[in-house]
Amino acid sequence: MARQPTYRPRHGYPPLHRTRGAIGAVGRAGVWAFLVTAIAALVALGAGPLAGWYRTLTVLSGSMKPGIPVGSVVVDTPEAPSAIAVGQVITYQIPVLDHRVVSHRVVAVLSGGDQPVFQTKGDANDAPDPWTAQSDGSALWRVWLVVPRAGWAILWLRRPVVHRVLVWLVPALLALAWLNEIWRRPRPVRRPAHAPAAA
Which CATH architecture has domain 51-148? Predict the structure, then answer.
């Protein structure tokens, strides 16, 4: 019996299962890259404040508009009190009323030394603050970076429902997608041995 000819693609296209395998590999690599990047970002964001390298705060008032609008995130870095100059924005706890934390601009250095006293003012306010910012000798927090509107995203991510989704649902979906890729891998097909051709 004559051997049947084997069909070969005329245009050299790879088999369909190989194409799916390549797409799956790219997808898995993308998922792992996303996870590694997310973990690295979380570690960096958590390690920085713990080490005292910087801290982040969400702006909830418009006293520093338009440069620092409501919903912005300010990144503060520690600065020696003697290095604070007029024009810089510092973050501190006000000494009156509710002792809230504000980020206002230094408009005057009232006294120097190891524990300088600063007069501050919000850019959107008509008058300087009715209090002064006095250092106790330790480092002050100076605004180093402003990220507009990022605070709204942080507040949204801190919601309990969103937190549960990110912590439980997203990893579960990624695990299911990974298992699905494993189950859908094509198994090798055993081809029957061809009978010897008739004489």
Answer: Ribbon (2.10)
Calculate the alpha carbon distances from 91 to 52, 58, 98, 110, 176 in Å: 15, 12, 15, 17, 45
pLDDT value, residue 2: 55
Q: Whole-angstrom Cα distance, residue 33 to residue 35?
A: 5
Coil, strand or helix at 52: coil
Contacts of 107 (CB under 8 A, 6+ apart): 86, 119, 120, 121, 128
pLDDT at 150: 83
Q: Is the pLDDT of residue 95 over 90?
A: yes
Strand (E) or helix (H) holding 132: strand 132-134
Closest CA to 131 of 161, 162, 156, 99: 99
Amino acid letter, residue 36: V
Q: For the chain, what are the domain ranges?
A: 51-148
Q: Are strands 73-79 and 140-147 parallel, antiparallel or unpaired?
A: antiparallel
What pLDDT does 167 receive?
67
3-state secondary structure of 179: helix
Q: Which residue has the tokens 């924005």?
A: 89
The β-bridge partners of 102 are 92
27-72 pLDDT, tens digit each: 667 767 776 776 666 666 667 778 788 998 889 899 999 999 998 9
